[in-house]
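Sanity check record (used in CI):
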Amino acid sequence: MPDFLLNALLAGLALALVAGPLGSFVVWRRMAYFGDTLSHSALLGVALGLMLEVNLTLAVIVCCVLLAVLLVTLQQRQPLASDTLLGILAHSTLSLGLVSLSFMQDVRIDLMGYLFGDLLAVSPTDLAWIVGGSALVLLALIPLWRPLLAVTVHEELAKVEGLPVAAIRLALMLLIAMVIAVAMKIVGVLLITSLLIIPAAAAQRHARTPEQMALGASLLGLLAVCCGLALSWYQDTPAGPSIVVSAAAIFLLSFAWPRRA
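Expected output for High-affinity zinc uptake system membrane protein ZnuB:
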């Protein structure tokens, strides 16, 4: 297997593993639009990274984390509805990133790669960021799993039981921000949220417990990555969109599979 294809496969599999349990919470808590907002801000992180001449992955992580904190703060203190606020920030950050990049005449970047992913161009450094970031998120999810489930099932009851609901909610948003930042190289700014949502939505139909859904979402994500890379390799299609198309096909096939009683 060529080195670039092996790097792409390892990066995609690492992301799929962590996207399963995290995507389950995105589906349960109906946070898809929140994920879109963070993914749109990733392009602003790219622009800031180029401007400050720092590692782009690190710049994107910092930008996504700061936006997650800003969202939590604004949701608690402003009178606007959450979806309105998310819409404003999503399109504003994406547009600001594009405008900022247009001023950098001496910088040549593959804008389509950032928007739609460039998985086959994953370098060993990119792979280290993706694997390291995914591992950190998985390790953080282990102690947070039960508290997150409690807050997701009944937030008011979780408050009564003494759980720090606001801190747990913020922790979930920061983990989503981390995954979105490292996933940008794989599926691109415009498709990141789909890799979190589609496998989890497909697994939801056939899972009896939250753990089964999280595991099923990870396995379906792994399958989507393998199928998408195979499609890209043999048919010369863009890797990121091919993975999303494969995930969508798996979601549609999940309706043909008999649902467990």
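DSSP finds eleven helices and no strands in the chain. If this sentence no longer matches the regenerated tokens, the check is flagged for review.
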